[in-house]
Amino acid sequence: MSIFNARWISEKSGCEAPVFRKKFTVRDIKSAVIDICGLGWFELYINGKPASENVFEPAVATYEQLNGKHTQYPIRDIFTNPRVYFCRYDITALLKDGENLLSAQLGNGWFNQTRVLNEGTFYIGVPRLAFSVRIETGKGETLEIESGTDVKAGKSQIVENNVYYGEKHDLHLTDDFHDICFSEKNFDCAVEAKRPDGELTLFDYPAEKVIRRIIPKYIGTVNGKKLYDLGENITGRLKFDTSYGGKIIIEHAEELNPDRTLDFYTVGCKYTPWRIQTFECIGDALPHKDVYAHFTWYGFRYFTVEGEIENLVCEVIHTDIKRTSDFKCGNEVLNGLYDIYIRTQLNNIHGCVPSDCPHRERFGYTGDGQITCETAMHVFDVREMYKKWMRDIIDCQDVNNGHVQHTAPFFGGGGGPSGWGGAVIVLPYQYYKFYGDDSLVKKYLPNMLHYLSYMESRCENAVVVREENGGWFTGDWAYIEEGNVDKDGVAYLTPQFVNTCYLIKFYDRLLELDGLLKLGLEREALKRKREAHASAVVEKYYDEATGDFCRGFLAANAYALDIGLGDERTLNRLVEKYDGAGGFDTGIFGTEILVRVLAERRYDDAVFKLLSSRKEKRSFGYMLDSGATTLWEYWDGKESHCHPMFGGCVKTLFTTFLGIRVASAGYRTVEISPCDIEALGDAEGYITTPRGKISVAIKRRGNRGAVTVELPDGVGGTFRFRGLEAPLEAGKKVFEF
Questions:
Q1: Residues with Cβ within 8 Å of residue 474, at least 6 apart in sequence
Q2: Which domains, from first to last, does the chain contain?
Q3: What is the mean pLDDT of the chain?
């Protein structure tokens, strides 16, 4: 017996947060392991003690086929492989000789979202549970205990729970559900539930955890509500004690209005004005410790409290991802950019899914994910996390035509065919370049090629012109519209141009991978298609008189240069425009491409000016000067204030300013070529590669100074600075200038 053939069960009334209890007797325990899945999320207890410190388990996945579901944009695709994750725990130390209790509390999670409203309603079914316990005794016997209708099930104190809206508790219903002595008189036998359609798969990736705790700062009373500040934008939940007999209401937001009321606009109320991230409970005047939301996180900095609570603490929650880098220099904007990117990215990793924002949508948008993945690899240990997310991308790819969704796991969402779906190529490529690990490329190469076939089917005269009927067809996103759109609001930098440039880049990356890994691709056929698209871009968008593409709007010239198009004038026009611009006008894709194209061509001064600018509504400095502790979705501050997409250029702190550049996949060899910018001041930092830590420190004394480079064992390369070129090998070396 195993979880693969265990019976799925639910609570008979279909309540949103049922408790399940199973008593069993065992003696002479040698080892015990449980496989368990509770959908949407579960908390498991053995004899009243939690079986794990992890939260929000199992991780979200594309649970089943969704064609025909109520979605904002039509979904007709047949997914490659819907999936449901289960968890495995060693519970040996939690069991005792004699009678034992296995208890689990379930919540809706992503499985039972009847009130999403963002992109449609993705209702899969009521919470359900399956488990299988395998116990080995000292006598060599094997005992197996599985879920079935002999399990007792009942309602809990959690009367409502929703990923987006929050939770409601009735403390009158609170009881010792996980105590073996709890009376089950109001519990009934569980009823059999439908087995999920997705492939049941062991989750062996980084888990979601309470990472740290913050004591909130009380900052006053507004309209009778106590107002608190965490000092930073986070994802997590509040925990408190209470003996209050009335209603307690906690509301969460990222920002304050001028009158110090909570500003709900940036967390999604523009679209659904009645949706506020709320925790609510009805008190019973009895003491309750550790009251908190069990089945959602909140994205917030500020919150208000109505009612009486004490011992208030905030638990910061995200996937357990470790920072493996550091950066500091003499420019406070660049230092601040590094700090707010870290917080933004971590706030947007839940269930090993990199999201666009942690409150309004919470989805694994493939556009945001692919544009930030290279930076994330430089800053964090995300090697295992991206394995899971790549599986998510493939699971919901259309098995028939190769279409890749805008979100993975799929929960709806708008976007474009290249900038979003192209994650299926970008992620394995960047994964190989950084880690030297070709497993994603080789495993998913057929899916990558299938996606290219899909993109070809969306072209007319070698230009990408559409995606799915009734859906979005987006190019750049969140750019500055002033001066960059026509009288009808249509961008001069067209979606057709952006998506075709991206498609050409995909061909370039596959050809590069084939040259490095001998993948056996039909190189000449790929080159012909690539050149057909490149010729079409030149014919349709290039101005021979000026050297501009799309009249130079929104870094269009950077897109062209990135795929080898244009001439010296194209580059000069790009540099001239942005070297003196004082800030950005680009969006989700243009920002990363612009900075990377300038950096690769060693226009270090222009890159420094852009990244360190404080220009109003056009810069990272403006965000910081406005009090931002996380990156914004738009330069002017409208919409979400926790969006990682502009963080795609943060890798430049390491690759350009410190000059740590990969010369061969996995950092077997490197080039260390720091920028020479006096305004940068002293600068130092490191990244952690598969071979160990690579660090660079630049110390200045006027026009003189020293660069210290330290490489791990097995890594060599070349050092270049101020005309000096010298070999590098493992160990520390100091170069004076």
A1: 414, 415, 416, 419, 420, 495
A2: 9-155+177-204 (2.60.120.260), 211-319 (2.60.120.260), 326-657 (1.50.10.10), 665-736 (2.60.420.10)
A3: 96
